[in-house]
Amino acid sequence: MLQWASDEQLHEKIREYASNGLKDSQIAHCLEVTANAFRVAKKNHPVVAEMVDQGRSQGINRVANALFEDAIAGKTQAQIFFLKTVAGWSEQAQQATTSSSADDAFALVEEEQNALRKWKAEHEEMAKRSSAAAQESLSMVTTKSKAIN
Description:
Blueprint: H1 8-19, H2 24-30, H3 35-44, H4 46-72, H5 76-85, H6 91-148
Helix pairs in contact: 1-4, 2-3, 3-4, 4-5
């Protein structure tokens, strides 16, 4: 029978297991007790629950420090993960912004294409009129030239 309240070696094992990310049922398995027995021990012996909490905090701290060091060292995945979880960045927000920017750019390109089509149509019409006027002038010059000769 385990001495939940007074066995400091047991407390240290519980803290170590929890710091390594084990769930309560896995800690119970390592201690060779049932998950229910471990649940009861946590409920009846605050020191057991405290060891689990301390261990989990220590494990999270180790991982957070390693992640932070990787992010600072320039590891892109660590930087992205850190910014998403700590700074609240979101790919959906980025996609919405990108999508909105793309929509705006597409609309601008479409406006420019329409303006170019209009300009081309106007200038083609002017070119036709100018060409017709030039033909008429040439015809008149030719006619006068023949009359003079």
